[in-house]
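Quick one:
INPUT:
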């Protein structure tokens, strides 16, 4: 497998998933500043010229959440995704889609400002994010991960949004999410993926 990646982007989630799996992979870091993601050879892999992209044999995959879900399903031990047709699988889909459709809009623009201009999020943006996160307050106060005692790929996608939120100051004092993020950051695979 070959992962096309750039530090600080959503490609981190895919790298984290690969590290959790322990699957051998080649990491190809693209310099966004140098425009490497817009080169014709990369556009053959990802027609929109963004990261991440995963090359797995003869198949190319784009979209970080889709890549994370695909990789979780490739695990022969099925450690990171609940059984098909189980209620837990429904919750797994729910939190992944929630992260990408509800959290992402609340986090993306503040994170882009932080990434490119070093500006923190505003109090209004922190409040907007808090309204979205409130749906998981009780859940994460009573259990360590989104699906209970077991870490899953849903935590990678959801947690990836919290990494961005924290980077731009939107999680300060926000419990139980700040403690949840610290649990995620303590995972050896997270730490390996975060090493540049």
């Amino acid at each position: 497998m070959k992962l096309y990646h750039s530090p600080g982007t959503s490609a981190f989630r895919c790298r984290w998933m690969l590290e959790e799996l322990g699957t051998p992979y080649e990491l190809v870091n693209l310099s966004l500043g140098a425009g490497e993601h817009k080169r014709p050879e990369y556009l053959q892999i990802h027609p929109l010229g963004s990261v991440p992209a995963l090359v797995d044999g003869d198949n190319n995959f784009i979209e970080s959440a889709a890549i994370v879900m695909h990789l979780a399903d490739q695990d022969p031990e099925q450690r990171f995704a609940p059984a098909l047709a189980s209620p837990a699988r429904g919750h797994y889909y729910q939190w992944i889609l929630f992260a990408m459709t509800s959290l992402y809009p609340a986090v993306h623009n503040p994170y882009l400002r932080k990434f490119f201009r070093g500006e923190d999020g505003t109090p209004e943006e922190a409040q907007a994010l808090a309204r979205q996160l409130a749906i998981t307050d009780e859940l994460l106060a009573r259990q360590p991960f989104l699906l209970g005692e077991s870490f899953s790929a849903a935590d990678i996608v959801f947690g990836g949004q919290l990494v961005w939120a924290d980077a731009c100051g939107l999680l300060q004092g926000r419990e139980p999410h700040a403690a949840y993020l610290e649990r995620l950051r303590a995972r050896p695979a997270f730490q390996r993926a975060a090493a540049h």
